[in-house]
Specification:
By secondary structure, the chain is mainly beta. It is 11% helix and 62% strand. It is built from 2 helices and 8 strands.
Length: 185
């Protein structure tokens, strides 16, 4: 029984991905700075789509500070006119892991290593270029809750903060944006 359910889910997933209303995407802006963001967007209703993307900063360091992060963002999108054309609003929630110097620690000898989640919204505009290509310009952000351990950049032993397990930090942040180049399957 379990194998039949798994096979059924696999077949449904493959049919969604190979449908004519599925787009493979890459963010041209983040790719220019060595932070790839790839995604897939597929139709789930007359004006609704499901977009799932992953952004990865794999830099070991930038200016001597760690800059590694991976962010997965599944997002429901509502298109006001029609799918893949015009203005849309999206709502998302997803996990992330990181080893970086957070924005409010710039200029210090400290960095953070941890995990978290983000919940927020995106607004964007999609413009069809031809039968296969679409441009998707978007910005977004929301609430990020992080659970991290703080360390020193210079190798000083121990942690700079005194939390027993993980320190916690929550901020409202802009954390999404760019221009996705989409290819329709």
């Amino acid at each position: 029984m379990k194998h039949k359910i798994n096979l059924s889910l696999l077949i449904q997933f493959i049919s969604i991905i190979t449908s004519a209303q599925t787009h493979l995407k890459v963010n041209g802006i983040t790719a220019l700075v060595g932070v790839p963001q790839i995604g897939i967007e597929t139709s789930i209703g007359s004006k609704s789509t499901l977009n799932i993307d992953i952004l990865a900063s794999l830099w070991k360091s930038f200016d001597g500070k760690p800059m590694q992060a991976i962010m997965l963002t599944p997002e429901y999108r509502y298109h006001f006119k029609e799918k893949y054309r015009g203005i849309y609003a999206g709502f998302h929630a997803g996990p992330d892991i990181y080893k970086l110097q957070k924005w409010n620690y710039w200029g210090t000898n400290q960095y953070e290593k941890g995990l978290g989640y983000h919940i927020g919204a995106t607004v964007g505009y999609q413009k069809k270029i031809n039968d296969k290509f679409t441009i998707d310009a978007f910005v977004g952000g929301g609430w990020h809750q992080g659970f991290y351990k703080g360390y020193y950049l210079d190798g000083t032993p121990g942690r700079y903060e005194t939390a027993t397990h993980y320190n916690k930090s929550g901020e409202w942040l802009p954390y999404r944006g760019g221009i996705m180049i989409s290819y329709q399957l």
